[in-house]
Design a protein that fits this description.
The chain is an alpha+beta fold. The chain is 26% helix and 21% strand. It has 17 helices and 25 strands. Strands 21-13-15-14-23-24-22-25 form an eight-stranded antiparallel β-sheet, covered by helices on one side. It comes from Archangium minus.
Length: 650
């Protein structure tokens, strides 16, 4: 039975940051004080977590709103009954804003414990990750399975406790987007710790030897994608559908058994982990490759702005035409192949000689490409207060082209020890680029112009601090494939090393009954083939699964699901309207499969708003009735959630 504890209001003396507008409670009593103050003064209340959700979903912009961060409320307590109670502001794991030693996963590891699964990143707060219904990629394990109890502060300033198996509301409150109250603590019944072993392989969609039938029903020895996701303990796929790329990167892992430990891996007591690497290692780190990726995506989005100063106009128009002509068939496949090369076997790739640079096309001049912090025109606030866009520092790096004689920025560092050779390092390696070069060369000569051949890259110095060490003495692996074995908390969140600054990414994620996987994959393939670059975009699409649960507003409620997670590079050159227009294609395309969207990511609206959602959650009405009882004055309801869920104003 639910237990409610009323705490008397005390004098409001909680840490407040006037720059960010955030309150930082340090105790449950502090949270209660803030809610009771809001109740007495008719203020809205929200908790921002780690700021990984869409801004509007976590922040209230109402006058006198109380927005709080629980980053000072993060203790972990091991109970006598084997459970672990965690304050909601505690971060999950590595690369969090607080030290690793202050995270939940560190404390579990020290006790020989683990959670059964986790998402792709772990620098999120426990409360936010849980209430937004986040999940890892498995149909066999689920993060929420290990949660057995929670306490929250409801909309009347009361502390309420809920236990799995005892309180019927437990299944309602665990995934509630902060609309039923503010999570104070969560109690886990952890698993025993484990190590994982796995591999990642990049398959061409035309490879008949691929061991997975991505688009068909499967065959003996070659499972369908649905079968593969059901059979594999942990997995996720990155689909690069662009013409000329057409490949899928398959990441899979399992918990290590006795027979998986070898002399190479070491045993459980002397384990020698080999980390999963999402990017190529350059200079002992994955950061330089992410800088290159960031540079490319900034250029791919911002080139119309960057070329507007090219004179004469005829040259500017030619450059514009050449970019439009070559971006899809030449430039994009070249860049994708740098980060996701196709596996063609264990033999080393053949060495090919590069053609000589065309005469009279390049000058020996050196130019500088600089990526700076885009702080915007207003004072920089705490990143988390701006949600998913803001935590990426107002849209990530700002691209500038400048002359090498210009004064260096004080916080800028050159990361290219030798200049990048535009011909040898880029153009000569680009598929089919040579067919377009004569035209560019001709017009350059006509105007007496040449392209600078050499470029140096400068980046913000602080973005290079603390580069993770990587073992570069490990045996060289075949192109397009890698094997790894690691601790549960390290490589299982496979995207942890992706920098929010260098690779700022937005998402919409659609959860669809897993039985419809084959239909969905074929629908997407047809969409990509017909729509071209306008449908595919320049980024990848993530495909993974989640296990069914009993949580009322979980997108996996009562059904295993396949998830379509569409990526969008968050640059400063494209608008929110362009992002939504791109996502609208996917919402319209997959609506017939009764998708449920991820609550923390971009949600559709219009005819896929509240009425659509209500039809897809059997407990929708009961949830809304419980919400009205627990927060009758709508302290936790913002205009964003009022519109998304159809909550009438009181």
């Amino acid at each position: 039975m639910t237990v409610a504890r009323e705490l008397s209001p005390q004098f409001l003396s909680i840490q407040h940051d006037p720059l960010t507008g955030l309150y930082h409670p340090k105790s449950e009593a502090d949270i209660v004080q803030l809610v009771q103050y809001a109740l007495a003064n008719n203020c809205a209340v929200r908790v921002i977590g780690a700021g990984h959700s869409v801004k509007e979903s976590i922040l209230s912009v109402a006058p006198r709103a109380i927005n709080m961060s629980l980053d000072e409320y993060r203790e972990v307590t091991f109970n006598k009954d084997g459970t672990v109670t965690v304050q909601a502001g505690c971060y999950l794991g590595q690369h969090a804003p607080k030290p690793w030693e202050d995270t939940l996963f560190y404390h579990l590891e020290q006790k020989g414990l683990a959670v059964p699964d986790m998402g792709g990143i772990t620098h999120q707060a426990v409360g936010g990750f849980t209430t937004m219904g986040c999940s890892g990629g498995s149909t066999q394990y689920a993060y929420t399975e290990s949660i057995v109890g929670l306490t929250l502060v409801d909309g009347q300033g009361q502390v309420r406790s809920f236990s799995r198996g005892k309180d019927p509301e437990f299944e309602a409150v665990l995934v509630s987007m902060g609309l039923l109250g503010i999570f104070s603590t969560l109690t886990f019944k952890p698993n025993e710790r484990f190590d994982i072993i796995g591999d990642e392989t990049c398959y061409s969609l035309s490879d008949v030897n691929c061991p997975i039938d991505f688009f068909g029903p499967g065959a003996p020895g070659k499972p369908s994608l649905e079968q593969f996701m059901r059979q594999t303990e942990y997995t996720r796929l990155l689909w690069w559908p662009q013409k000329g790329a057409e490949r899928i990167v398959v990441w899979k892992a399992q918990r290590m058994k006795d027979e998986d430990y070898t002399g190479l891996t070491g045993g459980p007591e002397d384990f020698k982990p080999k980390q999963y690497l999402e990017f190529p290692v350059i200079l002992g780190s994955q950061i330089p490759a992410q800088i290159a990726g960031s540079l490319f995506y900034q250029l791919s989005a911002g080139w119309p702005t960057l070329i507007q100063y090219i004179q004469p106009e005829g040259l500017r128009l030619l450059v514009k035409e050449l970019i439009e002509l070559t971006y899809g068939p030449c430039i994009l496949p070249f860049v994708i192949n740098l980060f996701a090369p196709v596996y063609t076997g264990d033999a080393p790739p053949p060495v090919t000689s590069l053609p000589e640079a065309p005469q009279d096309m390049f000058s020996e001049e050196v130019r500088v490409v600089e990526l700076e912090r885009n702080t915007g025109r207003t004072a920089t606030l705490s990143a988390a207060t701006q949600g998913s866009a803001g935590r990426r520092v107002a849209g990530g790096p700002l691209l500038r082209l400048r002359h090498p004689d210009a004064a260096n920025s004080l916080d800028s560092t050159r990361v290219t020890s030798r200049p990048i050779d535009l011909w040898k390092d880029v153009l000569a390696r680009m598929p089919d680029a040579s067919t377009h070069l004569p035209r560019l060369r001709s017009l350059l000569n006509e105007h007496g112009l040449k392209l600078p051949r050499y470029y140096h890259l400068h980046v913000p110095s602080d973005a290079l601090r603390g580069l993770p060490a990587v073992n570069e003495t490990a045996p060289q692996e075949p192109t397009g494939k890698q094997k790894f074995w690691d601790y549960w908390y390290s490589s299982l969140p496979m995207d942890n090393d992706v920098s929010d600054f260098w690779m700022p990414t937005e998402f919409t994620e659609l959860w669809i009954p897993i039985e419809k996987t084959q239909e969905v994959m074929n629908k997407l393939r047809d969409f990509y083939e017909k729509g071209g670059l306008g449908a595919t975009g320049s980024f990848s699409c993530e495909i993974y699964a989640a296990k069914a649960d009993d949580l009322w507003l979980s997108p996996a409620y009562k059904q295993d699901v396949v998830r379509v997670d569409v990526f969008w590079f968050h640059d400063r050159f494209r608008s929110e309207a362009e992002l939504r227009a791109f996502y609208q294609q996917y919402w319209d395309l997959l609506k017939e499969y009764d998708f449920r969207p991820h609550w923390a990511k971009y949600l559709p609206n219009g005819d896929m708003g509240p009425e659509y959602l209500a039809q897809r959650y059997p407990q929708w009405k009961q949830f809304m009735e419980l919400r009205a009882r627990m927060d009758p004055h709508q302290l936790f309801v913002t205009d964003y959630w009022r519109g998304a869920l159809g909550i009438p104003k009181t």
